[in-house]
Amino acid sequence: MLIKTNRDGFCQLRNSDITDQSLYAGRRDLMKLMASGAAGAALSTWASREALAQGVSAIARPGKLASLPSVKSAVPGAVTLEKLTDYKDASSYNNFYEFGTDKSDPASNAHTLKTSPWTVEIEGLVKRPAKYTLEDLLKLSAQQERIYRLRCVEGWSMVIPWIGYSLSELIKKVEPLGSAKYVEFVTLADPKTMPGVGSRVLDWPYVEGLRLDEAMHPLTLLSFGMYGEVLPNQSGAPLRLVVPWKYGFKSGKSLVKIRFTDKQPATAWNKAAANEYGFYSNVNPNVDHPRWSQATERRIGEDGLFAKKRKTLMFNGYEAQVGQLYAGMDLKKFF
Ligand SMILES: Nc1nc2c(c(=O)[nH]1)N[C@H]1C(S)=C(S)[C@@H](COP(=O)(O)O)O[C@H]1N2
Ligand SMILES: [Mo]
To answer: What is the CATH number of the domain that holds 134?
Structure first.
């Protein structure tokens, strides 16, 4: 249970943030909502406790982009008590190679991305292949706020209040055939608006993949926003995946195609360096990257001279929710 395992994060939140005016306001709003019974019905006991402790929707709402109203998610594991990463850090320290390979490149360059009109094609082994507009997708299911850790394979992590709904909601609508075993995610590769696509660091378009049961897991989020607003371009606007128990590169940004297949998809990072980036890429402190350890991580925003590294958790802390998906598998072999 998160309340036991995240003592540190909890204490930190109380000491440093509890006096924050906006946090108080958020807690009051949430308590009013709960008292009126509007939110209570949708929240299990643990979820309401964790949401109350964090005052989720009140924190760091930057106010520059269109707001994205959401309800609190009741998906188990969707809320962590750790202190949220500052919006400024989450939107200025990014990996989005289509806009350059430096962490600051996406924030400087992604303004050229044109996020409207936008469509996502669903194809392959499904009963109902379709072309969805962004507007259709936004309405397809209720938007929820979920606070997930995202752990990059390079050794840093963030805690972000994402907005979206489980990808399973969309998958159920298109009805995969019995032969569908994998899902391939293709992201935009537009040389006109994405300066990085001219480089050969990766084989464009950026492609990622999941096993169908991983894609159907309720934690797998189709995300349209963060911190109460639509995604900033550098974070993968207008929609991206967030798979919180896997290394960050599995969470493809600016999705344009979702394809159901019977074969394991060839993914961009695996094609670039198969010995370094496996198909599964579950966060695992016991399986090192060939060039560095994965046992610890640096939390963005805590990178002062004396900041302690954090221990990386098995499946990024989501083992109770997703461990079963890998029962009996040799995770050193299927890394
Ligand atoms: N299309 C696309 N998606 C991408 C990437 C990318 O380069 N292109 N980088 C991945 C990597 S390596 C990480 S760690 C996360 C970073 O997400 P963030 O910038 O929102 O933290 O996005 C992932 N999604
Ligand atoms: Mo990453």
So the answer is: 3.90.420.10
Report the atom number in ligand 1 closest to the C-alpha of 205.
Answer: 1
C-beta 94 within 6 A of ligand 1: yes
For 106-117, the pLDDT digits (tens) are 999 999 999 999
Give the atom of ligand 1 at the shortest distance from the alpha carbon of 234.
Answer: 19
- What average pLDDT does the chain have? 87
- Selection from 205, 144, 133 nearest residue 169 by Cα: 144
Cβ atoms of 251 and 150 within 8 Å: the answer is: yes
Which residues touch 142 (CB under 8 Å, ≥6 apart)?
70, 71, 165
Looking at the 3D structure of the chain, how many domains does it have? 1
The pTM assigned to this predicted structure is 0.85
Which domain range does residue 25 map to?
A: 21-326
- The residue contributing the CA closest to ligand 1 atom 10 is 249
Beta bridge partners of 240: 223
Task: Tell me: pLDDT of 35 over 50.
Answer: no
Question: 54 in a domain, yes or no?
Answer: yes
Q: Is the CB of 249 under 6 A from ligand 1?
A: yes
26 domain residue, yes or no: yes
Tens digit of each residue's pLDDT (9 = 90 or more) over 178-208: 999 999 999 999 999 999 999 999 999 999 9
Asked whether residue 129 is assigned to any structural domain, the reply reads yes
Find the DSSP H helices in the chain. 2-5, 7-17, 21-35, 45-54, 87-90, 105-109, 134-139, 167-174, 212-216, 268-272, 319-322
Beta-bridge partners for 119 = 133
Residue 147 lies in a domain: yes
